[in-house]
Write a structure and sequence with these properties.
By secondary structure, the protein is mainly beta. It has two domains: about 425 residues, Methylamine Dehydrogenase, Chain H (7 Propeller), CATH 2.130.10.10; about 100 residues, Immunoglobulin-like (Sandwich). It contains four helices and 40 strands. Strand 25 and strand 26 form a beta hairpin. It is elongated, with a radius of gyration of 27 Å. The N and C termini lie close together (about 10 Å).
C-alpha cells in the first residue's frame, strides 16, 4: 500500500511540513523534528528529573522500553549497560545539601531490582553521576562534611566563604568512591579519592597546605580562581567519566569551571598522596582545563569554561575519538555551548604542559552555539554526546530540550521531554515552571544518552515501537478562548502519525458538525463526530490502531462549510 502511493506520500510530506507550521504552535512537548536523512538512528535514554520512570525512545519519539519500578526520582544520571541492565542514581530524602543522590540502583531489562547501594548519612552522600566499570564495580561522586575548624586549619580564608558555610559551620568537598557490589544490596568500597588530600593555599603560612600555587597545578587551591566565593558544596562535581585504555577518570567541577583528570590505577593509599600509580603522581591532578586562574597561571581572559557539566572522552567509535567534550553552561557570559577540545596527551596518557604556562589547548576543535548565542542558555544541568555519524546530541536540561546537530550546526532532531512530576503531559499542555529552581521547568532532564541499534544491550530484546509518551486527547474537547470568526479545519498533528493523531477545527456558529475519515479508495472507515456544536475551537482524536498504514482523508462538514485534509498513517 505505502509503496504503491509512495510519490503521493512524498508530496504529502512536503505539504505537511508547510501546513503544520500553522498548527504546531499548540504543541509544547514530544517530537518536533526528525530529519531521517541526517539524524543518527538510535534509541535515546531519558530519565525526567521530577519523575520515577526511565524511558527509552526511538527517533520518532515513540516509546521502545520503560522502567517504572523505582520509588525514587533520578539523582541524577542513568545509563543502559551492555548487558541490558539499567544503572540509575536515585534521589533520597534527607540529603545534607547540593546535588541530589544518596542511592544507586541496578534494574534488569524486565524492570526487576537487581541491586541497590545506599551512601547517605549526615556526614556524606553520593550525588549527580555514576559510572559502571569494566570490572563490574561502580564509580560514584560523593561529598563529605568538613567542619569550619577543619577548613580553617587547612588554609581556607573565611572571608572567601559564602554565608551558608559560616551559618552551617561546615563545607562539603567532593570525593570519589569505587564500590564493588554485593548482590542484592550493599557493597564494598575498594578505592577512593578525596579532593581534600590534594589542597594548596598561599593565604596563611602557619596553616596546612601552604605553598606557591602557580608551581603546583597538580593541586587544588583553596581560594579557587579568587573570584568565586567558596560554596557549601565546594567543588560541585557533576559528572564522572572513565577511560579504560588510560585508566583515568575525568571529572567536571562546576564551582571551579574546570575539568580534572586523575589516575585510577593507584591504590587508595597512593590516591591520598602525591606519588605512585601508572603516572607516578598518586592522586594529584594529571590534567585540568577550563579556568587557569584556579592555579594562578591565567586570568579571566583565559577562561574557557563557565560552570560546565558533562565532561567526557569522545568514544573510540566516533569522530574525534580521544578528544574531550563538555557542555559549557556559560554562566556569566549568558549563553551555552557544546564544546570539543583536544587535550595535550600522548599515547601513554601523559599530559604536556610547558613550564610556567597553563594546560592547553587555547582553542576549541569544535563548538556549537545557537544563532544568536543568547537564544540558547542553560544555566544548570545539561549534557553533550558525540554520535558515531559525527553529529552531537545535546541536552538543554532546564527546559527538557533534547536536540541533535550536525558538525555544521544544523539541528536535525528535536524532542521536548513531556514528563513532569505528575507524569506525562498532553501534547499541547503548558509546561509548568519549577518553583524551586529559577529558570527551570518541571520537565527538566539532567542529560540523555543515545545508543546505536547495534548496541549489545538490545540483542534479543523486543524493540517494537509503542505509543508516544505524551498524551493525546480522546473524544471531543472544546478549547477555552474567544469565538472563531470563520470555519476552519487544521491539518492533523502529528502527521505522519502512528497510531493516533489530533484533528483541530473551528466553528463560528452553532451547527451540526460531521467529521468522517475515509481511506484512499473513498471508503468511509470512521465517524469521529456527528453532533451539534456551539461556536468554538475543538479537537478530536483519531486512533488508527488496527488500520493499515497508508493515506487517509479527514472530511468535516459544518453547516454549509466542508473541507478535507489528507493524513498519513505510517506503520
Amino acid at each position: 500500500m505505502l509503496k504503491k502511493h509512495f510519490p503521493l506520500i512524498i508530496a504529502l510530506l512536503i505539504l505537511t511540513a508547510a501546513v503544520n507550521s500553522s498548527y504546531p504552535q499548540t504543541r509544547t512537548v514530544g517530537l518536533f523534528l526528525n530529519d531521517t536523512s541526517l539524524s543518527y538512528k538510535g534509541y535515546t535514554l531519558m530519565a525526567p528529573n521530577k519523575y520515577t520512570a526511565t524511558y527509552l525512545i526511538n527517533n520518532q519519539g515513540r516509546l521502545v522500553h520503560k522502567w517504572s519500578n523505582s520509588a525514587y526520582s533520578p539523582g541524577n544520571a542513568v545509563y543502559l549497560l551492555p548487558n541490558g541492565n539499567l544503572l540509575r542514581s536515585c534521589k533520597v530524602q534527607g540529603y545534607i545539601v547540593g546535588g541530589e543522590g544518596g542511592r544507586v540502583e541496578l534494574y534488569s531489562w524486565g524492570d526487576t531490582l537487581l541491586w541497590y547501594y545506599n551512601h547517605n548519612t549526615q556526614n556524606y552522600i553520593t550525588h549527580h553521576d555514576v559510572r559502571y566499570l569494566p570490572n563490574g564495580n561502580v564509580l560514584m561522586i560523593a561529598c563529605e562534611k568538613k567542619t569550619l575548624a577543619q577548613a580553617l586549619a587547612s588554609g581556607f580564608d573565611s572571608s572567601k566563604f559564602q554565608s551558608e558555610i559560616i551559618t552551617s559551620g561546615y563545607m562539603l568537598p567532593d570525593y570519589i568512591i569505587e564500590v564493588q557490589p554485593t548482590y542484592p544490596s550493599g557493597g564494598t568500597i575498594v578505592w577512593e579519592w578525596h579532593v581534600w588530600d590534594h589542597l594548596i593555599q598561599d593565604f596563611d603560612p602557619t596553616k596546612l597546605n601552604y605553598g606557591v600555587v602557580a608551581n603546583h597545578p597538580e593541586l587544588v587551591d583553596c581560594d579557587g580562581d579568587g573570584v568565586q566565593k567558596a560554596k557549601l558544596l565546594w567543588n560541585h562535581m557533576n559528572s564522572i567519566n572513565y577511560n579504560a585504555k588510560l585508566d583515568q577518570i575525568i571529572i567536571s567541577c562546576r564551582s571551579n569551571s574546570e575539568i580534572w583528570v586523575i589516575d585510577h590505577s593507584t591504590t587508595t593509599l597512593q590516591a591520598a598522596g602525591h606519588t605512585g600509580g601508572r603516572y607516578g603522581q598518586g592522586g594529584d591532578l594529571l590534567y585540568r582545563w577550563g579556568n587557569p586562574a584556579c592555579y594562578k597561571l591565567g586570568t579571566s581572559a583565559n577562561q574557557k569554561l563557565f560552570m560546565q557539566h558533562d565532561a567526557e572522552w569522545v568514544d573510540s567509535l566516533c569522530p574525534g575519538a580521544g578528544n574531550m567534550t563538555v557542555f559549557n553552561n556559560g554562566v556569566g557570559r549568558n549563553y551555552s555551548s557544546a564544546d570539543q577540545f583536544v587535550p595535550p596527551v600522548d599515547s601513554l596518557g601523559f599530559y604536556y604542559r610547558a613550564a610556567g604556562t597553563a594546560f592547553g589547548p587555547t582553542s576549541l576543535a569544535w563548538t556549537y552555539t545557537a544563532t544568536p548565542p543568547a537564544s540558547f542558555y542553560c544555566a544548570n544541568i545539561s549534557g553533550v554526546q558525540r554520535l558515531p555519524n559525527g553529529n552531537t546530541l545535546i541536552t538543554g536540561g532546564p527546559t527538557g530540550n533534547l536536540f541533535e546537530v550536525t558538525s555544521g550546526g544544523q539541528v536535525v532532531w528535536k524532542y521536548i521531554n513531556p514528563v513532569i512530576n505528575t507524569g506525562p503531559l498532553y501534547f499541547d499542555d503548558s509546561i509548568p515552571i519549577d518553583p524551586n529552581n529559577t529558570g527551570t521547568f518541571q520537565n527538566y532532564v539532567f542529560k540523555v544518552h543515545r545508543y546505536a541499534p547495534t548496541y549489545e544491550a538490545f540483542t534479543g530484546k523486543d524493540l517494537t515501537p509503542g505509543n508516544f509518551i505524551e498524551l493525546y486527547h480522546t473524544g471531543i474537547i472544546r478549547e477555552s478562548g474567544s469565538t472563531p470568526s470563520s470555519f476552519r479545519l487544521y491539518q492533523n498533528y502529528p502527521n505522519p502519525f502512528n497510531p493516533s493523531t489530533t484533528i483541530r477545527y473551528e466553528i463560528p456558529e452553532r451547527c451540526q458538525v460531521s467529521i468522517i475519515v475515509y481511506d484512499i479508495l473513498g471508503k468511509q472507515i470512521k465517524t469521529l463526530t456527528g453532533e451539534t456544536h456551539s461556536p468554538g475551537t475543538y479537537r478530536v482524536n483519531f486512533d488508527a490502531s488496527g488500520y493499515p498504514g497508508g493515506v487517509y482523508f479527514c472530511r468535516i462538514t459544518a453547516g454549509k462549510f466542508a473541507e478535507t485534509k489528507k493524513m498519513i498513517l505510517i506503520k
